[in-house]
Design goal:
Order of helices and strands: HEEHEEEHEEEEE
Helix content: 10-25%
Mean pLDDT: 88
Low-confidence stretches: none
Strand order of the largest sheet: 3-4-5-6-7-8
Structural class: alpha+beta
Number of helices: 3
Radius of gyration: 17 Å
Distance between the termini: 61 Å
Largest sheet: 6 strands, mixed
Length: 195
């Protein structure tokens, strides 16, 4: 006889209640993806260095134009609350005290990927496209290049993706999709070994 297993899915309200009750340890990194709790992978040194470099560079470029959020939740209509490495969002008077940013607030979502590359492409990308987030970037640390995705679309029933994918090399610059389109110099972001 075959045994059946069921997966317990959580609503956003239930997930928020678990957080309020202290169900998760403070250094435990989880996110809600389509109602399921997903343990986030540990970050290696290249990921951490890239993250630090992006904080430094993006903070200067978005100042006065948008808000930079780092590893903070965004709320999506699919019953998901991922915590991307970065989100560049509209400024609000309460700085999102009343609620996490939603797709209407988001200019750009960024993930930094080494061991999480397949997850960021196969799970996160369709999730962000379905939510109609216009721009999604993956800092691919495996090949040291930026994968910039734009123009979300539905290509078949319940399958979402982005129409355009541009590759930027670590020695190039790329425009941020915000007011005045400041340029991000990728050579100051990707980790470099000093010989």
């Amino acid at each position: 006889m075959l045994s059946q297993t069921t997966t317990r899915r959580f609503t956003l309200d239930e997930y928020h209640r678990l957080i309020e009750l202290g169900f998760f340890h403070e250094d435990e990194r989880v996110e809600l993806i389509r109602g399921e709790l997903v343990q986030m992978v540990a970050k290696g040194t290249a990921h951490t260095t890239c993250c630090s470099n992006l904080i430094r560079e993006l903070a200067q470029l978005v100042a006065g134009k948008a808000e930079l959020r780092c590893q903070d939740p965004i709320t999506l209509p699919s019953g998901s609350e991922p915590e991307p490495d970065f989100a560049i969002v509209r400024s609000t008077p309460d700085n999102y005290l009343s609620a996490h940013p939603t797709p209407a607030d988001i200019f750009l979502v960024i993930e930094i990927a080494d061991s999480s590359l397949d997850y960021d492409r196969d799970v996160k990308m369709p999730l962000y496209a379905e939510a109609e987030i216009s721009h999604y970037w993956i800092f691919n640390l495996v090949t040291n290049q930026l994968e910039a995705y734009s123009e979300p679309y539905k290509y078949s029933q319940n399958n979402f993706g982005y129409r355009f994918r541009r590759i930027f090399l670590a020695n190039q610059s790329v425009e941020l999709p915000i007011a005045s389109s400041p340029l991000l110099d990728l050579s100051s972001v990707f980790p470099r070994k000093i010989s």
